[in-house]
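Q: I'm building a small set of examples for a reading group on sequence design. Run inverse folding on the following structure and report the sequence directly after it, with nothing in between.
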């Protein structure tokens, strides 16, 4: 099981993005991420000890100030199509990345919407469009950091919350 630290958007933000991405369908050779799995990854931890990580996150991030977040726009990287995440103030989000053990210089605030399949096949769509670039979801403030376990399955990864760290206000 691989571990990562993330922020999970609330139902209203997920529903708004789901409405704007519904027309995408599932391009050949790609997998649409289930809306209930949409999240903002702050740090990857790999196969670390969950108990050690939970204690470290508690010491580092408990009560840390949380920015306001908004899912807005979109972009593409090889094998991934994503929705962007805007933070106000941006330095508070970068601070959470650091507290979670992430690399702020490589951090791209985003929610993965589409991911290429491991074996996409010769008929795969090489470049599905990002049709939600005009999306502007509601603002929200995360109340907790989540330490999440990721278990690979045939249909993608299954996520399980291992530990919750409460965040503070602005």
């Amino acid at each position: 099981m691989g571990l990562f630290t993330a922020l999970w958007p609330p139902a209203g933000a997920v529903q708004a993005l789901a409405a704007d991405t519904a027309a995408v369908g599932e391009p050949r050779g790609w997998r649409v991420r289930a809306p209930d799995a949409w999240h903002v990854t702050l740090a990857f931890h790999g196969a670390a000890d969950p108990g050690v990580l939970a204690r470290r996150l508690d010491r580092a991030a408990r009560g840390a100030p949380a920015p306001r977040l908004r899912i807005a726009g979109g972009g593409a990287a090889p094998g991934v199509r994503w929705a962007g995440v805007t933070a106000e103030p941006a330095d508070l989000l970068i601070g959470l990345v650091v507290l979670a053990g992430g690399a702020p210089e490589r951090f791209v605030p985003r929610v993965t919407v589409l991911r290429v399949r491991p074996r996409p096949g010769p008929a795969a769509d090489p470049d599905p469009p990002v049709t939600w670039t005009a999306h502007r979801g509601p603002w929200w403030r995360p109340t907790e950091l989540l330490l999440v376990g990721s278990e690979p399955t045939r249909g993608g990864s299954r996520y399980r919350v291992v530990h919750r760290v409460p965040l503070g206000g602005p």
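Helices lie at 11-21, 50-61, 90-100.
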